[in-house]
Amino acid sequence: MSLAFIIFLVAWIAGMVCTFLPAVPATLIIFAGAAIAVLLDGFQAGADLPFLLGFGLVTLLVMSVDNVASAWGAKKYGGGKEAMWGAIVGGLLGMLLGPLGLFVGPLVGAFAAELLFARKPLEDAGRSAWGTLVGILAGIGAKLVLHFVMGIYTLWRLWEPAQRVGGGG
């Protein structure tokens, strides 16, 4: 195994673990590991540039989707703009409480915003909070799938026997 392979493997494992922490840029950790590994492995513009550009676009997409997942969930389950903003503010404030706060913050934020600002009944506010949780979990699920695919593909590219079969550098 090459140094590039090992560096990416460590970054990938760290990114997969960090996937469960909403405020940690797990996708960016995996992308940085891939970029460093490709550079250490002997960057070849023809093969590696499209790979890194594609990986970079997927990274931006995943990070963007992740940032709005809880707000989307609140909206999908009947919450208004108050619930969406409450989920975002709750998520930011939840960061101060550690990993558990990252999950609880958006739920409490959406629930409180629906009750206090939208003046919705308890049941409707609860539905919006539930939607926030669904959004968070959907975001985590999507990230896990994408991180897994990106990781396996990158490890295959860096694995020496695969390079001989695939003709990579």
Write the layout of secondary structure elements.
Layout: H1 3-18, H2 26-40, H3 45-76, H4 81-94, H5 99-116, H6 122-158, H7 160-166
Keywords: Membrane, Transmembrane, Transmembrane helix
Organism: Deinococcus sp. VB142
Transmembrane segments: 6-39, 51-72, 84-117, 129-156
Radius of gyration: 19 Å
Q: Output the helix-strand order.
A: HHHHHHH
Q: Which percent band covers the strand fraction?
A: under 5%
Tell me the number of helical segments per DSSP (H or I, 4 or more residues long): 7
Helix fraction, binned, reads over 70%
Number of domains: 1
Shape annotation: elongated
Question: What distance lies between the first and last C-alpha atoms, to the nearest angstrom?
Answer: 14 Å
Report the biggest beta sheet as strand number plus sense, adding barrel if it closes. none
Low-pLDDT stretches: none
How many strands in all?
Answer: 0
* Arithmetic mean pLDDT: 87
Structural class: mainly alpha
Describe the protein in words:
The protein is mainly α and 169 residues long. Helices cover 82% and strands 0% of the residues. It contains seven helices and no strands. The protein has helices at 3-18, 26-40, 45-76, 81-94, 99-116, 122-158, 160-166.
Brief characterization of the structure:
With 169 residues, this protein is mostly helical.
Give keywords:
elongated; 169 residues; single chain; mainly alpha
